[in-house]
Target: 2OG-Fe(II) oxygenase
Amino acid sequence: MGSDESTVTVADGFVPVIDLSSRDTARGRAAIAKAIGNACSSSGFFIIVGHGVPRELIDRMFDRTNSFFKLPEEEKDLIANRPGVSGYRRAGGTLARSLDLQTPPDLCETFAAHVTGELSDQERGQLGDEWASWTHKNIWPENPPDFRSTWQEYMRVVGDLCADLMRLMALALELDEDFFEDKHDHHGSSVAVNYYPPQIEPPLPGQLRRGPHTDFGSVTVLHMEDDRKGLQVLQGTEWRDVSAIPGSFVVNLGDLMALWTGGRWVSTMHRVVNPERGDTTSRLTMPYFYLPNYDASIEPMQPFSESSAVDRFDTVTVSEWVSRKVQKIFS
Ligand SMILES: O=C(O)CCC(=O)C(=O)O
Ligand SMILES: [Fe+2]
Model:
């Protein structure tokens, strides 16, 4: 069967579902790029199926990570770290503060690791200053025993998927496929899992599992638990639920793609709402934040140099931009 835009878009809407399974043919890539381009200029969010990341790996990653969060607090605290860096955090910060919105802390724990956190001390030392989260060594729990190897495999496989998504996005913008490559050839991406514990006590007024924010890298590839709702995306003035499809990922653009494209593409506000009172389930989501090279410039790119998004950026490099955001989230 030939691939065209209507066959790769398996469900249309504000957050369409796009099937990537024909991405190894030129015709398939062209159709997928078109579908991605439509989503990126309207919502900046889409769901991918047929992405090629083995279900077994996603399930293993979910299982080992969830098991870690179910350990007693004292054991998790053994790998606690300072804000934004690799390791465990009992309080995962306040994402709304990245946009200077003052809200109570998010009802969320986190565990994070950076792809650069596996490099040698010397290599990491060359990637930026002390504050920069990607210059720190990863910290790993001892339990479950295959936690680290599973995370390493997941970071590698989802990182490769992100690199191909960037090539498809370049195609969608009618650029060479490798247009974004030199901005990501020593990227400091991270996986920063959100664990939303059971809500026994009622939240404070204005307190959410994750407050409203935009992501600040290039793209985010998020895996969510199939049957646990919560993610909402802002469409105009309305919050829209994003439902999870088993084995899929939600992909969304971060601020840097909006900036690089001079505002032609959008980085959309989203949040995670609380479960109904009486629903005491936990929820775990696994975002892979594809971040460009720390020293990449954040100027709008040619041919998009007339930028309406430029006002939102008062820093020069990815390193300054990301460090400033992280400091706000944990302030
Ligand atoms: O947990 C979710 O569904 C989304 C979390 C999120 O937006 C984030 O971590 O940036
Ligand atoms: Fe987000």
Observations:
- The chain has eight helices and 13 strands.
- Helices lie at 5-8, 26-42, 55-69, 73-77, 121-125, 147-172, 255-260, 318-329.
- Residues 147-172 form the longest helix (26 residues).
- The pocket of 2-oxoglutaric acid (ligand 1) is lined by residues 194, 210, 215, 222, 224, 230-231, 270, 272, 285, 287 (CB under 6 Å).
